[in-house]
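Dear support,

Our group has been running a series of protein-ligand predictions, and this particular one with PMT is the one our PI (initials K.S.) wants archived with full inputs and outputs. We had some confusion internally about which version of the output was final, so please treat the block below as the authoritative record. The input we submitted was:
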Amino acid sequence: REALDPVRYISNHSSGKMGYALARAAQEAGARVTLISGPVTLTTPDRCQRVNVSSALEMLDAALDVVSDCDIFIASAAVADYRPAAVAEQKIKKSGDEIQLTLVKNPDIVATITSHAERPFTVGFAAETTDVAAYAKGKLARKNLDMIVANDVSQPGIGFNSDDNAVTLYWPDGEQAFAAMSKQALARELILAIAQRYSAVLGD
Ligand code: PMT
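Confirmed final output from the archive:
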């Protein structure tokens, strides 16, 4: 959420379901999980430590707080690319027929994590509505990720705010497609695939 004034913000349709499912699956697989979460209406999965944030800048700070103690960093949050240049101190009053809003670029959290000296194994997501594979592979390289989960969010019934999802996981020399299933079932499959790749990379 990027605040405009004390009562309004810019956001998107992310519910947090995919991220919470991943946190639960990772915990069940034996990981010690810190869940950095925007404002959602979901219950914190058992035995996960939840850190609440609102904006991209807050999420970046929370991520940097844990990065040195982190083996695997998974970035499934739909973080705003831009935020309002200024947050009005008081509620913006209705005036003319148009108002102008100036946005400035947010830091890229996952790219900041992959450029950190104590860089964890890092898995990003790519939410795309067109040219899904090409954009996802571009983000894999540009953000220096170990793996990326490509999510075609143009498809009905999957992606933002749905209970199900279908994705393709890419890494520099491979890929694995996952047909539509519940986000919790998908999260278990993704954690398994991520753990396998993590072990393979560590073994190199
Ligand atoms: O929350 P749900 O309703 O369950 O929906 C799940 C989901 C659709 C949000 C999820 O599956 C998904 O696709 N998440 C990624 C959403 C996204 O913002 O993707 P992106 O292509 O814009 O960003 C690419 C990557 O950069 C992501 O790992 C994102 O977390 C990261 N990013 C983006 C912006 C930013 N300022 N900092 C970042 O780290």
